[in-house]
Amino acid sequence: MSAGPEKIIRDDIRALSAYHVQPAQGMVKLDAMENPYRLPEPLRREIGEVVANAEINRYPDPTAPALMRRLREVMGIGPEYGVLLGNGSDEIIHIIVQCVARPGAVVLAPRPAFFMFSQYAQFAGLPYVGVLLNPDFTLDAGAFLRAIAERRPAVVFIDYPNNPSGTLFSDQGIARIIAAAPGLVVIDEAYNPFARKTFMMRLAEFPNLVVMRTLSKLGLAGIRLGYAVGRPEWIREFNKVRPPYNVNVLTLLVAERVLAHYDVLDAQARSINAERERLDGELRKLPGVTVFPSDANFILVRVPDARRVFEGMRRRGVLIKNLHTGVPLLDHCVRLTIGTPEENRRCLAAFAEALAEG
Ligand SMILES: *Cc1c(COP(=O)(O)O)cnc(C)c1O
Question: Which domains does the chain have, with CATH numbers?
Answer without folding.
Answer: 5-40+263-356 (3.90.1150.10), 56-261 (3.40.640.10)
